[in-house]
Write a structure and sequence with these properties.
The complex is a heterodimer of chains A (293) and B (292). With 293 residues, chain A is an all-alpha fold. Chain A contains 14 helices and 2 strands; from the N terminus they run H-H-E-E-H-H-H-H-H-H-H-H-H-H-H-H. Chain A is globular, with a radius of gyration of 24 Å. Chain B is globular.
């Protein structure tokens, strides 16, 4: 067995195609992004090495920091919304009939393409015929706003469909984690006279803490690099009010043909995502990981 | 299966039981409210895809059209290249998914069964790749494909789809491979079975259920992919449904029925798949996100 299973040729045959592919498509481009960022380049012509120029410009670029602020705001919103998702998952996991059906229904928006969702929400926000304003008018609101055209409202208006899209995903993850808790624990606590709230807070929450950490990373990093809905719905507008880091990178490279500076933004995005992951991991380190069962 | 509410009711005083019942009603109201929020936009989409503009503007939003205008669907299917986009999406999704699942199975087999230095390093490379934002790779990928004359070619899409979906596929497969009993394989080796034969004849078929799960997850991601097609592909005849729909709708900004029908056509394959395979999809998404 050992001899057959350590045949170098076979191992290479099984591993190399995938390994080469991931190096070529994911890792080499990451390094190249950092390098392109050191150049002045329109994407087609020759590159001109300019050292750290792009990166120093980036540090002073108020447009970049605005876009970073918008991305960060989305990250905060997404992270806070996790509390709601966890609460819903706890309700679902309380042995209710139909829980399985509910979690499936919740998941549907996440399975659809961002383009379709974005186009649908463009219609929902339509100033006169969209269901958002029709609904507000039926509640007696006069002159509801043109959501996507108001610089002060556009970010909020974009966050709602993004949260809508991913709600089911996080509820599903929490539900799966909660279902893994042995029921004997809950029963024992009940016999000792614990209330449902106490059980949720003192027993279930600590047990799904690891999963909560993973979802915080997913939500924050996912938000920092978020692109799709915003690109289709507002394209960063009006006047940059909804520009996020990824859309700023895209516009700089593929609209303004400033590939050097665009690469610098892309590299900054990568670093920011990795640093955010690291910080969240650090902040959420618990000294004593609880192990029941 | 009895719910806890009913099971416990017998042991409680009537007062407690009714308090508990009210509690359950409140919980159900919350769950139903969330479900309504998640589904209403889609129901509304279906409704306006069957209306003309006059009906959209004059009827209440959730009014069911008296004469559903199915011709909206025929109109958008025949106009433009929606059918072409559809076919492109189908074959790109199929090829990328098949390649990802096969390549990821080979790697997972090598990592869980074969003895070699660097196996944990390679696994680490695949897992870390999940944290890397695709947008940071976009410019170099564009210029690499440009130099290799692969922009505006489906090859660029297949390569990127396979590479970016490989990590999550391996992650889902890993758990299954670790749990797979090795006795059969040991017996096969003693009988002189080659590695290839063992993998393709014994192991690969044994993983068919998890393969189905990963295939569906891949299918959904590939079908919905937007940014790579949008960046790499410029010929209309090579575009996929997601990007094609985006361009197509641009021409119909004022025709609500046509836009609704186009969107419905683009999401229907996913909705139908979900209807039949929701358990596998749920399982795949849960497995692909947490075990990290």
């Amino acid at each position: 067995m050992d001899k057959v299973m350590s045949n170098k040729k076979m191992i290479a045959l099984y591993v190399l195609p995938s390994l080469i592919l991931i190096l070529a498509i994911v890792y080499i481009p990451i390094v190249l992004t950092g390098y392109y960022g050191l150049n002045e380049w329109n994407g087609i012509g020759p590159m001109k090495f300019v050292g750290l120029d792009n990166y120093t410009t980036l540090m002073k670029d108020s447009k970049f920091w605005d876009s970073a602020k918008h991305s960060l705001l989305l990250a905060v919103f997404s992270a806070l919304s996790l509390i709601v998702y966890l609460a819903i998952a706890m309700v679902l996991a309380a042995k209710l009939k139909g829980a399985n059906l509910f979690r499936k229904i919740y998941l549907i928006p996440m399975l659809l393409s961002s383009v379709a969702i974005a186009q649908l929400w463009l219609k929902i926000y339509h100033p006169t015929s969209g269901i958002m304003n029709t609904f507000l008018e039926s509640l007696g609101v006069n002159n509801p706003p043109a959501w996507l055209a108001e610089p002060s409202l556009v970010l909020l208006a974009l966050f709602i469909p993004i949260l809508w899209q991913y709600a089911g995903f996080y509820i599903l993850i929490y539900y799966a984690a909660l279902k893994n808790i042995p029921t004997s624990l809950e029963e024992a606590a009940k016999i000792d006279g614990a209330t449902s709230l106490q059980i949720a807070y003192k027993i279930k929450l600590p047990l799904v803490l690891e999963v909560i950490k993973v979802t915080i990373v997913l939500a924050v990093v996912g938000s920092l690099k978020y692109f799709d809905l915003i690109y289709v719905m507002t394209d960063g507008g009006p006047n940059g009010a909804s520009e996020v880091m990824a859309s700023y990178m895209y516009h700089t490279a593929f609209r303004a043909y400033d590939f050097g500076y665009g690469s610098a933004i892309g590299f900054a995005l990568l670093i920011i995502c990795l640093v955010a992951t690291w910080i969240i991991r650090k902040l959420t380190v618990t000294k004593d990981t609880i192990q029941y069962s | 299966m009895m719910s806890v509410g009913q099971a416990d009711a017998g042991a409680m005083s009537p007062k407690e039981a009714s308090a508990r019942r009210i509690g359950y009603v409140v919980l159900y109201i919350i769950l139903i409210a969330v479900a309504v929020l998640q589904l209403f936009p889609l129901v509304w989409l279906l409704l306006f895809s069957l209306k003309n503009n006059q009906e959209v503007f004059s009827l209440p939003p959730f009014a069911i059209p008296t004469h559903p205008r199915w011709e909206n669907y025929r109109k958008v299917w025949e106009a433009g290249n929606i059918d072409q986009y559809f076919i492109n999406s189908v074959w790109l999704t199929a090829v990328s998914t098949a390649l990802t699942v096969i390549l990821a199975s080979l790697v997972t087999y090598a990592i869980t069964r074969m003895r070699w230095k660097g196996s944990s390093l390679v696994l680490g490379l695949f897992m870390v790749a999940m944290m890397i934002p695709v947008h940071s790779t976009l410019i170099p990928l564009f210029s690499m494909f440009n130099r290799a004359n692969l922009t505006d070619s489906p090859v660029s899409l297949i390569l990127t789809y396979v590479a970016f979906n490989m990590p999550i596929t391996i992650m889902i497969l890993l758990g299954f491979y670790y749990a797979l009993p090795k006795e059969v394989e040991e017996a096969a080796v003693i009988d002189g079975c080659s590695v290839n034969r063992m993998f393709f004849r014994i192991v690969f078929p044994m993983t068919s259920s998890v393969l189905a799960t990963t295939a569906i997850i891949n299918m959904i991601y590939n079908w919905n992919e937007f940014i790579f097609v949008n960046t790499f592909i410029s010929s209309d005849t090579l575009k996929t449904l997601t990007v094609g729909v985006q361009n197509f709708i641009g021409q119909y900004t004022t025709d609500w029925g046509a836009i609704g029908a186009t969107l419905m056509i683009s999401i229907l394959p996913i909705l139908i798949t979900f209807l039949f395979l929701s358990d596998r999809i749920v399982e795949g998404i849960a497995a692909g996100s947490v075990k990290g």
